[in-house]
């Protein structure tokens, strides 16, 4: 396998150079901060609008700023002195959130717009933007028997309402800041990221965490039943968090991927019914399935075509769903038990609406 450049092997980056992670209080941002900390970086600035007690993870020795990056002056303050900027900040969640709160999702465009301009003015060397598979043309995702999405399938554009359009336009900002102003940007389209430290209750959780929690609840309550959104035939691929953060690191430091959107996802396709069976198997239980057909379903099928990432990086996310789900299920189970025992658990991002 090829050895790709990552932050710790980048010739442009010293261990005490300032790395800014926006959205560091969330799932992926927090995991990315941990990754850089473990690589020996000593000057990491972690920014999130959530108050510190609500951060999903806190990494010792990092500078913490609690501020809303959709405000321009906060974005300017956040990037001061940053050599690299990683934008993981967005108001987002699983289907239950993004189908219902499209305005909140669209408003995340303010974060990237201000942060990118501020980073450019501050002389930041590299800027990473977290895009999504929701940027792809939805008319290509109407059948559970999917043809995996390749990067060119975003155009002609017909992204998912709200969330997907915000991602697509923010991608374009990143592309043009390089084309017109020469700033090195990197753009990854994430395919449904899951793992320990992700949201698992409260309304923003995605299918892997939601199904895990529901199986745990069914066992705990003795109900013997589970509610599944849709008819369970929808298909998806799910990417384990460690593949995601490793992928971000490689993509950001690859000179062949500047300002070039690329899939960052697993190519292991499953139906939601298969995901439920897998979690049942991990938990050692068999449940009666109740299908809620009017629940948020999103697209009928979606998978990641990894031809491009394999070609450029000679790598693709490869944690099997089974291995990742075992870790995720066990982590959610311990969180569930802690919460039941009256201990504080924080992986819920409250839905904050004005007024
Ligand atoms: N969240 C959730 N909770 N989904 C469920 C549940 C449940 O209890 N039961 C079944 N599902 C089904 C949903 O109806 C949907 O068809 C499928 O699982 C996946 O839902 P999801 O994990 O919430 O999110 P999506 O894959 O549809 O969309 C996510 O895609 C990512 C990119 O691939 C988005 O929410 C984005 O967060 C993200 O960019």
What is this structure's SSE topology?
Layout: E1 19-22, H1 27-38, E2 44-48, E3 63-66, H2 72-79, E4 84-87, H3 95-98, H4 102-107, H5 109-122, E5 126-132, H6 163-181, E6 184-190, E7 193-194, H7 207-221, E8 225-229, E9 235-237, E10 239-240, H8 241-252, E11 262-264, E12 269-271, H9 272-283, E13 288-292, H10 307-313, H11 321-340
Parallel strand pairs: 1-2, 1-4, 2-3, 4-5, 5-6, 6-11, 7-10, 8-13
Antiparallel strand pairs: 9-12
This protein binds guanosine 5'-diphosphate-beta-L-gulose.
Guanosine 5'-diphosphate-beta-L-gulose binds next to α3, α7 and β8.
Task: Note down, in words, how this protein is organized.
The chain is α/β, with parallel strands linked by helices. It has a domain at 19-194 and 239-264: Rossmann fold (3-Layer(aba) Sandwich), CATH 3.40.50.720. 36% of the residues lie in helices and 15% in strands. The protein has helices at residues 27-38, 72-79, 95-98, 102-107, 109-122, 163-181, 207-221, 241-252, 272-283, 307-313, 321-340, and strands at residues 19-22, 44-48, 63-66, 84-87, 126-132, 184-190, 193-194, 225-229, 235-237, 239-240, 262-264, 269-271, 288-292. The longest helix is centred in the C-terminal third of the chain and has 20 residues, at 321-340. The protein is globular. The model has no long low-confidence stretch (mean pLDDT 96).
């Amino acid at each position: 396998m090829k050895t790709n450049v990552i932050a710790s092997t980048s010739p442009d980056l010293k261990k005490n150079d300032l790395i800014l992670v926006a959205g560091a209080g969330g799932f992926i941002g927090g995991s990315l901060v941990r990754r850089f900390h473990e690589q020996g970086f000593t000057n990491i600035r972690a920014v999130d609008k959530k108050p510190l007690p609500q951060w999903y993870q806190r990494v010792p020795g990092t500078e913490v700023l609690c501020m809303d990056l959709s405000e321009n002056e906060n974005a300017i303050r956040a990037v001061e002195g940053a050599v690299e900027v990683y934008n993981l900040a967005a108001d987002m969640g699983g289907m239950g959130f993004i189908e219902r709160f499209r305005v909140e999702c669209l408003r995340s465009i303010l974060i990237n717009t201000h942060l990118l301009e501020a980073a450019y003015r501050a002389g930041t060397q590299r800027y990473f933007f977290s895009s999504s598979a929701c940027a792809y043309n939805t008319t290509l995702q109407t059948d559970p028997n999917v043809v995996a999405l390749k990067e060119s399938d975003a155009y002609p554009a017909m992204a998912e309402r709200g969330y997907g359009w915000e991602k697509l336009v923010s991608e374009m900002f990143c592309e043009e800041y390089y084309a017109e102003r020469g700033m090195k940007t990197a753009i990854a389209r994430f395919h449904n990221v899951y793992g320990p430290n992700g949201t698992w209750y409260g309304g923003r959780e995605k299918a892997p965490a939601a199904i895990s929690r529901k199986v745990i609840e069914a066992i705990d309550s003795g109900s013997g039943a589970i509610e599944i959104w849709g008819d369970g035939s929808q298909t998806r691929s799910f990417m384990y968090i460690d593949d995601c953060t490793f992928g971000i690191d490689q993509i950001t430091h690859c000179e062949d991927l500047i300002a070039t959107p690329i899939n960052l996802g697993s190519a292991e396709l499953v139906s939601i019914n298969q995901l439920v069976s897998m979690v049942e198997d991990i938990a050692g239980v068999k449940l009666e399935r109740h299908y809620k057909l009017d629940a948020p379903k999103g697209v009928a099928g979606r998978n990641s075509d990894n031809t491009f990432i394999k070609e450029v990086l000679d790598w693709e996310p490869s944690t099997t769903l089974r291995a990742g789900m075992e870790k995720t299920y066990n982590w959610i189970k311990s969180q569930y038990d802690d919460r039941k025992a009256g201990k504080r658990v924080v992986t819920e991002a409250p839905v904050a609406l004005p007024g």
